[in-house]
Amino acid sequence: MLAVHFGAGNIGRGFIGALLCDAGYHTTFIDVNKEIIDEINEKKQYRVILADQNQEEIVVDNISGINSIEEPQQVADTIARADIVTAAVGPTVLPIIAKNIAEGLLKRVETTTKPINIIACENMVGGSSLLREKILELLPEEKRVLIDEIAGFPNSAVDRIVPNQTNEQLLTVAVEPYYEWAVEKPAFKGEVPKINGGVTYVEDLKPYIERKLYTVNAGHAAAAYLGNMYGYQKIEEAVQDDRVQTIINRALKETGDVLITLYHFDKTEHDHYRNKIIGRFTNPYLSDEVTRVGGRGPIRKLGANDRLIGPARQYVEQFQHAPENLSKVIAAALKYENREDPEAVTLQEMIKEKGYQRTLEEITGLAADHPVITTVLKHL
Ligand SMILES: NC(=O)c1ccc[n+]([C@@H]2O[C@H](COP(=O)([O-])OP(=O)(O)OC[C@H]3O[C@@H](n4cnc5c(N)ncnc54)[C@H](O)[C@@H]3O)[C@@H](O)[C@H]2O)c1
Ligand SMILES: O=P(O)(O)OC[C@@H](O)[C@@H](O)[C@H](O)[C@H](O)CO
């Protein structure tokens, strides 16, 4: 069995690659990072370390790599033969890899109409659907219907904290032991792959992706933006600060109220889920950076359907007033500065030029008098 995985980064190696290896796939990693791809081809294996007191190590082997800048044709040839394609490259890179995948699918249908499934593993709602849309746009009209028939794009929600790595060996990844990968079953074409113990196939992904984004990523974002405001560089340090911890707890109760009302999660179970997640942020065996969690697209992270505005908007729809604590987190996000992060720089330039209110309106798509905007402005 052959898997093609785009993005040999933190989650790609630390989670998806490890699961595919365990399920018996040969995994070909596709990346634009020459150093990583050369190392994959030289070592043909790497280690995943589970970050807890036992420090258990898993060897991921049966792997190869292709540099998509140097060898795009080889990428297409591999997709033509693959059984599954996965991606963890970041939401803004999906339109870029769409070109590689489109070329691979065109090559594939020259010789086979065997179904293939393509799963984006990004922190966003509808990642695989977006990838499908971008791929279809690139296909010649006469091939579009056939490819759309054989290629499935199940959306997914991926959860495992994998910080930036500082190991001596380039490919080694330290990850938290916890993981969850929920994938939308009805969207598969052909057989659903057997990834035992790894994937939870669900009929409707929406409750899972929203629960994940609005709890794990909202809580994480709160730690990052409030932590940054109080001068912390590490997530685990920020979360120990009572001022930060109190707001995280309260903000996640607000997102929990939204999720429980919308999706009828059991309240006790959700309380347990929330506490477990906050505990994951303080794992003493992992060190995570505020710049990783809050940066890498702070404008995108303030988008209408993302981790903060998504639940805040839905809170207003359900309870007719704004969530105070989530609003404090959004206010802290607007103060996020990092000269090395291009989107953080743009955010501050927008605020300087247009002020907080217009910037918020533009980024979130909410009206100036929306309760979330008026409440956030109160906390700035
Ligand atoms: N790290 C986590 O804890 C975690 C957990 C769940 C989900 N995710 C999601 O997974 C995605 C990747 O996150 P990450 O932390 O692994 O980031 P990362 O930066 O470690 O990895 C991304 C990889 O994609 C590669 N890449 C960039 N452009 C490419 C292209 N055109 N073709 C092929 N590869 C390309 C990069 O070189 C890099 O190796 C993000 O959407 C993130 O939200 C991350
Ligand atoms: O990956 P991002 O940038 O969308 O979000 C940063 C972190 O919150 C995220 O990577 C978490 O570590 C991950 O989503 C945990 O499952």
TrEMBL record:
InterPro entries assigned: 6-PGluconate_DH-like_C_sf (IPR008927), 6PGD_dom2 (IPR013328), Mannitol_1_phos_5_DH (IPR023028), Mannitol_DH (IPR000669), Mannitol_DH_C (IPR013118), Mannitol_DH_N (IPR013131), NAD(P)-bd_dom_sf (IPR036291)
Cited Pfam families: Mannitol_dh, Mannitol_dh_C
Cellular component terms (Gene Ontology): cytosol
Binding annotation for NAD(+): 3-14
Known catalytic reactions: D-mannitol 1-phosphate + NAD(+) = beta-D-fructose 6-phosphate + NADH + H(+)
Domain Mannitol dehydrogenase N-terminal, residue spans: 2-196
Keywords, alphabetical: NAD, Oxidoreductase
GO function terms (MF aspect): mannitol-1-phosphate 5-dehydrogenase activity
Single Gene Ontology BP annotation: mannitol catabolic process
Listed EC numbers: 1.1.1.17
Record keyword Repeat present: no
Domain Mannitol dehydrogenase C-terminal: 204-364
Annotated family: Belongs to the mannitol dehydrogenase family.
HAMAP family reported in the protein's UniProt record: Mannitol_dehydrog
NCBIfam families: PRK02318.1-2, PRK02318.1-3, PRK02318.2-1, PRK02318.2-5
Protein name per Swiss-Prot or TrEMBL: Mannitol-1-phosphate 5-dehydrogenase
Organism field: Gracilibacillus boraciitolerans JCM 21714
